[in-house]
């Protein structure tokens, strides 16, 4: 009779084992579409055998499920995190540089090349009839259009910089949020596993959070052994670090903080005020080496040749929004200086030097009719109140042409002009007859000065890149190369990450076919154990 009950116990264990296996299959199928879920597998072993009383050996006691393990390759996790960081950086750069390309809008019917061509075409028409009021008005309007193009570009760049600043803010907030969630999961996992169980689902949730975190900033994540538990098992703590400092140290976190840079602490003179600087909440410096934050910082703060700013705000040689703002400012300053004063730097010495000379510019010419006067600048700038400055207001006290420093002072005046405040002078805006054409007063058909002004379009000494259009073409080409590079890097990194994801899925992902096969297998095992009970009962 005891042997019969022994057989029943073995069969019941078979039922329980099959049922546990079926429950695991059921759990896998229910989570087939759960992000970050790892396939689970029951650990089934032969239960402890029983020694026979007559000493003839050991009798098997059936099977039992001792646990449920998580199918996960930690190497692939580490590999994914290291590649995801680079993907995040280049994705952010590719996205931001695409926005800058749209701002330049080249080539197009409304881009710089078209606007500059229209401006000089109107001046060509003026050369045919300097007395034409209609053509003079057209020249003025085309000049206004040219200045507004740069005003619009500068304003849009400022908006892009503000947008990137907001993205940096949201990403830092996301990092802190993920850190808090990982800390909470660490606590739950640790408590759950104290009795020897494995918190598979919570570990999946934690890994998914690290996946998201790895795209934002350069993190390292690992489980380290800190000692032994009372039962002899290893006491493991989970750490997430950024540049060597712990963001999450098992149960504690060190959050990131955003500090606004005021106007006295700009990294670049072209920056909008109140941009965020990222640091640790305890005030220590933070080194952001890669990830989306690195990409956004580079594009927001990158100014080729700069020091990179405090705490490595941007890569020293990266060309971001401040770089393109600086180049636009350089263009309007150089172009306005040449057009107004006839100044072209031909001695290859950057900035003003004693060997620099001023040729014939708009200031040397005379307008038409009663307005036939010289010393009028075609381009000036807007004042702090937003109004266009007249030539007199722009020049201020620099009026003594006999002063030995006169040329240098005039040269330096143009350093105040930026793409944002660039404008046609109030004099020209108020009276288009002040547009200079003649080299001699009251000679209506004289176009000597106008010919000099037309010649500036093709003057290859104006910029290192050549003429005005050459400068802008070079700038747009530089942007195009950088944007293409970012797109290529992003595409290559995406391929690598996709390959790792596919390997992860093949290892940890849930396969319906495999689970259905297991379902049939364990169902048959359950049926076999039930049949065994029926058979033992009949015996």
Short précis:
The chain is of the alpha+beta class and 539 residues long. It is built from 13 helices and twelve strands. Strand 6 and strand 7 form a beta hairpin.
Detailed description of the structure:
- The chain is of the alpha+beta class and 539 residues long.
- It is built from 13 helices and twelve strands.
- It has a four-stranded antiparallel beta sheet with strand order 5-6-7-8.
- The radius of gyration is 37 Å and the shape is elongated.
- The mean pLDDT is 90.
Query: Counting H and I runs of at least 4 residues, what is the number of helices?
Result: 13
Major beta sheet, specifics?
4 strands, antiparallel
Q: Catalogue the unreliable spans.
A: none
Radius of gyration: 37 Å
Strand ordering within the main sheet: 5-6-7-8
The structure class reads alpha+beta
Furnish the topology, listing elements before pairings.
Elements: H1 2-30, E1 40-46, E2 50-51, E3 58-59, E4 63-70, H2 74-104, H3 112-128, H4 133-192, H5 200-216, E5 219-228, E6 234-242, E7 245-249, E8 252-253, E9 256-261, E10 275-280, H6 292-301, H7 321-341, E11 379-381, H8 391-395, H9 406-413, E12 422-424, H10 426-430, H11 448-455, H12 468-508, H13 512-538
Antiparallel strand pairs: 1-4, 2-3, 5-6, 6-7, 7-8, 9-10, 11-12
Helix pairs in contact: 1-13, 2-4, 2-5, 2-6, 2-12, 3-4, 4-5, 4-6, 4-7, 7-12
């Amino acid at each position: 009779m005891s042997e019969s009950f022994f057989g029943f116990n073995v069969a019941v264990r078979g039922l329980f084992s099959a049922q546990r296996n079926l429950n695991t299959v059921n759990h896998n199928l229910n989570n087939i579409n759960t992000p970050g879920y790892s396939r689970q597998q029951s650990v089934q072993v032969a239960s402890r055998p029983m020694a026979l009383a007559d000493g003839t050996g050991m009798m098997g006691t059936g099977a039992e499920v001792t646990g449920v393990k998580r199918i996960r390759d930690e190497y692939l996790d580490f590999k994914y995190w290291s590649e995801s960081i680079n993907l995040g950086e280049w994705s952010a750069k590719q996205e931001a540089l695409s926005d800058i390309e749209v701002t330049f809008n080249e080539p197009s019917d409304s881009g710089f090349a078209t606007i500059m061509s229209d401006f000089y075409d109107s001046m060509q028409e003026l050369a045919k009839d300097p007395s034409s009021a209609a053509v003079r008005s057209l020249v003025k309007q085309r000049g206004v259009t040219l200045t507004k193009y740069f005003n619009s570009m500068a304003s849009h760049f400022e908006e892009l910089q503000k947008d990137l600043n907001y993205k940096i803010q949201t990403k830092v907030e996301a990092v802190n949020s993920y850190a808090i969630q990982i800390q909470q999961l660490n606590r739950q996992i640790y408590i759950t596993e104290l009795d020897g169980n494995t918190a598979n689902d919570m570990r999946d949730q934690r890994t998914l959070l690290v996946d998201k975190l790895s795209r934002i900033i350069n993190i390292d994540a690992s489980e380290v052994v800190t000692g032994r538990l009372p039962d002899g098992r290893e006491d493991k703590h989970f750490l997430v670090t950024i540049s060597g400092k712990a963001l999450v140290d098992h149960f504690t976190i060190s959050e990131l903080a955003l500090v606004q840079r005021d106007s006295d602490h700009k990294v670049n003179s072209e920056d909008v005020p109140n941009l965020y600087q990222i640091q640790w909440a305890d005030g220590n410096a933070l080194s952001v080496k890669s990830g989306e934050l690195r990409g956004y910082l580079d594009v927001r703060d990158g100014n080729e040749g700069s020091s990179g700013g405090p705490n490595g705000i941007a890569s020293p040689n990266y060309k971001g929004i401040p770089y393109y703002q600086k180049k636009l400012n350089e263009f309007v300053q150089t172009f306005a200086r040449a057009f107004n004063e006839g100044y072209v730097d031909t001695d290859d010495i950057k900035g003003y030097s004693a060997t620099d000379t001023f040729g014939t510019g708009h200031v040397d010419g005379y307008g038409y009719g009663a307005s036939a006067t010289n010393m009028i600048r075609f381009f000036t700038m807007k004042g702090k109140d937003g109004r266009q400055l007249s030539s007199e207001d722009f020049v201020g006290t620099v009026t003594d042409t006999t002063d030995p420093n006169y040329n240098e002072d005039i040269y330096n005046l143009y350093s105040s002009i930026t793409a944002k405040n660039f404008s046609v002078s109030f004099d020209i805006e108020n009276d288009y007859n002040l547009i200079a054409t003649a080299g001699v007063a009251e000679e209506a058909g004289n176009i000597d000065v106008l010919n000099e002004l037309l010649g500036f379009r093709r003057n290859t000494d104006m910029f290192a890149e050549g003429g005005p259009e050459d400068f802008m073409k070079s700038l747009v080409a530089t942007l195009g190369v950088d944007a293409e590079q970012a797109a290529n890097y992003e595409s290559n990194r995406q391929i690598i990450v996709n390959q790792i994801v596919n390997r992860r899925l093949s290892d940890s992902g849930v396969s319906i076919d495999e689970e259905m096969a297991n379902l049939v297998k364990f169902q048959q095992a359950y049926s076999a154990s039930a049949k065994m009970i029926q058979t033992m009962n009949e015996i």
